[in-house]
Amino acid sequence: NTQGALLKVSNLEGWYGESHVLHGINFDVRQGEVVTLLGRNGAGKTTTLKAIMGILGKRKGSVVFDGTELIKLPARAIARLGVGYVPEERGIFASLSVDENMMLPPQVKPGGMSVEQIFELFPNLKERRNSQGTKLSGGEQQMLAIGRILRTGAKMILMDEPTEGLAPVIVQQIGRTLEWLKRDGYTIVLVEQNFRFAASVADRHYVVDQGKVVDMIPNEDLEANMEKLHAYLGV
Ligand code: ATP
């Protein structure tokens, strides 16, 4: 049932040059949901986020967000509609301070969080606001990467492995942030390798394998589907 879907991805295909990587991705996300894309390395999860965001060179199929077809739009138009992207590599500029990094993405939509609100959400970042990007821990960089997207006014956020390489206590903090965003009505599409984290924050999980979505598992059914999932993930 895709009625009321905020995001509906249908038969999405994608290429890097001649290399055909996405072979028909189908999934939908309701407003206020947190969904994950799970799958083994190279399955096409990151590429799916890039294709939705309009930063993959060649893509086809359909990506409807809030009633608008995105497939032919450039990334900046997609951002302006309220889609935010937090890439795996975080994109923090080493030579700029926290404050300066925060101001990099343009405000694309009214209703974004103010810098002070973002610092309320991430108090440790506030203490570091004059520090250079290079001086930040991995966790602080991740919080900055998420925080500055909240400033843009994006209401749906695509996040690529936000917990990668972070200490458990920081992973918990990121988890609390996602819960807060969900309560506030944000919609989140999360690529995640940390299974336990995925289970703790998501409503539903889509399994990506060889450039296709091959399964959907509601979070409450995750335990019961563990064997099947392990087979998909190859763990
Ligand atoms: P990972 O967790 O390893 O990032 P993933 O599911 O996100 O896994 P993708 O990064 O989407 O996988 O990669 C899908 C396929 O596309 C892989 O076969 C990968 O080798 C290939 N690929 C990824 N980036 C590029 C690129 N810039 N140029 C060419 N091929 C790429």
TrEMBL record:
Belongs to the ABC transporter superfamily. Residues 7-235 form the ABC transporter domain. The keyword ATP-binding applies. This is ABC transporter ATP-binding protein. It comes from the Bacteria. The lineage of its organism: Bacteria, Pseudomonadati, Pseudomonadota, Alphaproteobacteria, Rhodospirillales. PANTHER family: HIGH-AFFINITY BRANCHED-CHAIN AMINO ACID TRANSPORT ATP-BINDING PROTEIN LIVF. It comes from Aquibaculum arenosum. InterPro entries: AAA+_ATPase, ABC_transporter-like_ATP-bd, ABC_transporter-like_CS, BCAA_Transport_ATP-bd_LivF, P-loop_NTPase. The keyword Kinase does not apply. Keywords: Amino-acid transport, ATP-binding, Nucleotide-binding, Transport. GO terms for molecular function: ATP binding. SUPFAM superfamilies: P-loop containing nucleoside triphosphate hydrolases. Pfam families: ABC_tran. CDD domains: ABC_TM1139_LivF_branched.
